[in-house]
Amino acid sequence: MTPRFTKADLEAARDRLVPDVVAGGLRVLFCGINPGLLTAATGHHFARPGNRFWPVLHLSGFTPRQLKPAEQEELLSYGLGITNVVARATARADELTAAEYAEGGRLLTEKVRRLEPRWLAVVGVTAYRAAFADRTARVGPQERTIGDTRVWVLPNPSGLNAHWTAATMAEEFGRLRVAAQD
Questions:
Q1: Is residue 31, in this structure, part of any structural domain at all?
Q2: Antiparallel, parallel or unpaired: β 149-154 and 80-84
Q3: Domain that includes residue 152, residue range
Q4: Can you tell me whether residue 22 is helix, strand or coil?
Q5: Nearest Cα residue to 152 out of 117, 115, 111
Q6: Is the pLDDT of residue 2 over 70?
Q7: Which uninterrupted H or E stretch holds 121?
Q8: Residue 152 counted as domain residue
């Protein structure tokens, strides 16, 4: 159960950095937009109860059971990790500037070159477009590579993304899972 946080607790987490869950040579490095305030308050990625990342990760077959955000380190045992385009925690992604996205894309590229995951999976086509100046990107595998790392754009698992259900998101995550096995 996620502990209850007051509005003041969440506001105090604004701009806080959340450590990545990474290692060299991962199968897939998932990349969120930026941490939300609950993620920053708990230190656990995708911590908001309405976020569908953890259920979809399991439904798509990446994990044998649905992990809780507090179990995020277990991802490493499956060859998976988590980072963000922009490290700064905000209440909403629309608080980020174009310059933050561009700088985030630059820093993410450096991180991917250093860690060399097989796949970088950016969750959110809008974030990908902003970070990599690719206005025509769509969900799915991208032409772009970073060194030997291939890139896949996944739907944003936020509960606000009503265009995608957990089932349709799991299908797209599953396509990546199959590709990452090659």
A1: yes
A2: unpaired
A3: 17-181
A4: coil
A5: 117
A6: no
A7: strand 119-123
A8: yes
Residue 167 reports pLDDT greater than 60: yes
In this structure, is residue 6 part of a structural domain?
no
- Quick: pLDDT tens for 70-121: 999 999 999 999 999 999 999 888 899 999 999 999 999 999 999 999 999 9
Tell me how far apart the alpha carbons of residues 138 and 89 are, in angstroms, rounded to a whole number: 25
pLDDT given for residue 4 in this prediction: 80
Domain containing residue 147: CATH number = 3.40.470.10
- Residues 9-47 as b or e (16 or more Cβ within 10 Å = b): ebeebeeeebebbbeeebbbbbbbbbbbbbbbbbbbbbb
Three-state SS at 145: strand
Residue 84 lies in a domain: yes
Total domains, the chain? 1
Six token digits for residue 148: 């030997």
Please give the model's pTM, rounded to 2 decimal places: 0.93
What are the structure tokens assigned to 16, written together? 């806080």
